[in-house]
Amino acid sequence: MSAGFVTSEGQIIYSNMDHWWSRKFKESGLIGGSTVHYFEPGPWDEQYQELEDPIPGLTPWSTSNVKAKVGVVTGNHSVFHEPRGDGYCVRMETNLKKVVVLGVVNVKAIASGSIFTGGMVDPITDPEPPRRNTLMGIPFEHAPTAMQFDYKTIVGRNRQRATGGLRVRDIDGRDKAEAYVILQNRVEDNDGNLTEKRVGTGWVRFDETTPDWVNDYQLKINYGDITDSNVFESYMGLIDDKDPFYSYNSKGDVVQYLESGWSSNPDDVTHIIVVFSASYEGGEYKGSPESKFWIDNVKFIYE
């Protein structure tokens, strides 16, 4: 991932959500042969429209819009660009993905719309574990005090869990939209292994529908160990072996990483993870097909 994704003012490019590249491919004839055409934040030039495959290093942003090749070629489309004012915003949706083979539904999976800094394995050839296919984080050497964005939500009340088989199970609790930012110190050894420390954390979950735009919402970023602070929730803890993250190393290999501890020094920041998701447990195939989450004008605040 390129350090050129961040401006000298400490802003990630394409964060105003007004510029989008697009991809177009056909699903396997066995499941209907539909054409999938989706958009992701990135360069708006004509040469970057209707690409068959993504271009590595094109954009710092990736989404849950994916191409999978597990027996058949299929696509998931859960993130959309939507007109807003003179530009665009991003709309994320949670959906119950159904794959129909010869007229018979044989796969059902909850797919939560999400957008994040990093990349995706493409095409996905093994869906397990899901985290293995999301390559989180980009180079970033700034220390913002907050992340600002515009948002609105539809929070679904009826959650389901569907992991890719035939069964769809109802689960308790309403859905929640989620936004978070993690600042890390990342060190790579000679073998390409990554060691991470957590430097900054900002995290929010929205559990109420907000039908009108909330502009300039600010998510505070707290530095150092936050486990004893009044903002801490268990899901904000260090990345551990119960749910490891993955990323590219400098050799271009996909490697697993954990966070070994905390740092309170803003000068230690080397990487950033930003995530927005329509369903907070979408990575576990849980969510409500009613849920939608709109985001626009993402920027960092420095004080």
Structure in words:
With 303 residues, the chain is mainly beta. It has a single domain (84-301), classed as Sandwich (Jelly Rolls). It has strands spanning 20-26, 35-41, 61-63, 66-70, 72-76, 79-84, 87-101, 104-112, 114-120, 134-136, 138-139, 146-154, 159-161, 169-171, 177-188, 194-206, 210-220, 222-223, 245-248, 254-257, 259-262, 271-277, 286-287, 292-301. Strands 3, 9, 10, 11, 15, 16, 18, 21 and 22 form a 9-stranded mixed beta sheet that branches. Strands 6, 7, 8, 12, 17 and 24 form a 6-stranded antiparallel beta sheet that branches. A 3-stranded antiparallel beta sheet has the order 14-13-23, with no helix packed on it. It is globular, with a radius of gyration of 19 Å.
Distinctive features:
6-stranded antiparallel sheet; globular; 24 strands; Jelly Rolls; 0% helix; single chain; 303 residues; 9-stranded mixed sheet; mainly beta
CATH superfamily: BT2081, beta-jelly-roll domain
Per DSSP, the total helix count is 0
- Give unreliable regions as ranges: none
What's the gyration radius in Å?
Answer: 19 Å
CATH hierarchy, class: Mainly Beta
The figure for the number of domains is: 1
Quote the average pLDDT.
Answer: 93
Instruction: Tell me the strand percentage band.
Output: over 45%
The profile of the biggest β sheet is: 9 strands, mixed
Secondary-structure element pattern, one letter each: EEEEEEEEEEEEEEEEEEEEEEEE
From the N-terminal CA to the C-terminal CA, the straight-line distance is 27 Å
Please estimate the helix content: under 10%
